[in-house]
Amino acid sequence: MSIPSSCDSVDTSTDAKMLSCLKQILLNRELPIISQLSVNSDGTPRTALNGKSQEVPFLGAQFAHHGDTGDYKRWNKSIQMARASPMPQLEHGTEKLPCIVLEIGAHREAKSSQEHIKKYPNCEYHAYEVIPQFAEELKELWKDEPRMHVHPYGLAENDIEIKVHINALNGLSTFVGDMAAGKNLDGKTTVTGQIRSFDFALSEIGQLHNREADAVIPTLLDINCEGCEYDLLLEAKKHGFIERVSVVLIGWHAYGKDGVGARAWQLCQVRAMLSETHEMAYGLGFGWEKVISK
């Protein structure tokens, strides 16, 4: 197997995991997800409407690369049901010692937090958004919710500044995966965002909740940052941040300048890294994935 030079740092002990992951992603294999999803509560087979509005068996399965399945409603319903499955780790929060949820890439509404806060009211929520305009909209939207704290920056190992083209601001979320610090871009067509270190973020959370930074243990890290997830998770591992987190929800993205092949390699590299400390509850290449600490 030819390995891209940019990924030479992958330890040989992860080769088997990498090969298995790449086969799943690039060969578009259907994988098991949550077996109980294939039947109703009374034991009868569950069905779903496919893309042609035809009723078909619902397999409770995922596709490794959902973009090629040709049956988006089927995989989408499956993964949505999996995402809605309970997270008992978030149920133990109390008023004095709340669980902590971090949403990375909150965009304009922090939609994930909107769902989580209904189910897990004893958590404190932190929404991170690198685009200043969106961060201000978040603050306005959540101004009457004391459990929500909006942070106008993204997260990484070190403080950096990024520039995002204004054309990228019109989607459902902002793709920043190809944005690099210090690029010579036209200031009239870009907005500047700030990335702050994990240490800074933990210190800020600690101040808000009267805890030392070392005592801040995020319960859930919910990532939908449109391409930043690859670097973010690898840097979180290097920092030691990821070991603190009980549950990680990841939205994988394949678009951008790197292409699907390189993105598949990066995805599998991150999966291999996460497997050292977390177990996969479900996973969809270039879709949604959940891992839980061992």
Automatic annotation (TrEMBL):
Top-level taxon of origin: Eukaryota
InterPro entries cross-referenced by the UniProt entry: SAM-dependent_MTases_sf
Protein's name in the database: Methyltransferase FkbM domain-containing protein
Phylogenetic placement of the source organism: Eukaryota, Sar, Stramenopiles, Ochrophyta, Bacillariophyta
